[in-house]
Amino acid sequence: MKTSQAILAITLSAAILGGNAFASSAAEAKTASQRDNWLAIPAIYDNVTAAGYLDISEIEREKDGYEVKARDADGNRVKLRVDPQSGEILDVRTKGEKGDKRDKTDRTDQKNCSSRESDQR
Asked: What is the pLDDT of residues 91-109, one digit of tens each?
């Protein structure tokens, strides 16, 4: 009786683990088939330059699209999020804008404060 229970437990464990492996394989296959529909990097480059961005230094594939580093018409460094299938620019962030509350002036103020503190010591 104990042997049959052990065999049953092993069989169930294998089935559960195999089911998880199958599910992750299916998800990976779906993601791969979606990436087959992505525009090529030269097409992304063309779309970004057509939108007026210059000096493109990097185009990187991310899990949900492309990330492009470039300069806008005013010469500011920007990071663009680009739709991988249409080439549409979905988001534009200037350098230093990461969603946190600090920006370049905050960092400069912190440096000035710490240098003043060390001067006072």
From this structure: 999 976 655 443 343 434 4
Give the pLDDT confidence of 23-56 residue by residue, as tens digits.
556 556 555 666 789 999 999 999 999 999 999 9
Domains in the chain, number: 2
Query: Does a structural domain hold residue 77?
Result: yes
Q: Which domain holds residue 69?
A: 41-94
Global confidence as pTM: 0.54
Q: Which two tokens stand for residue 56?
A: 């493109």
- Spatial CA neighbour of 64 closest among 45, 91, 26: 91
Measured CA to CA, the distance from residue 80 to residue 103 in angstroms comes to 18
Q: Helix or strand or coil: residue 52? A: coil
Residue 31 shares a structural domain with residue 46: no
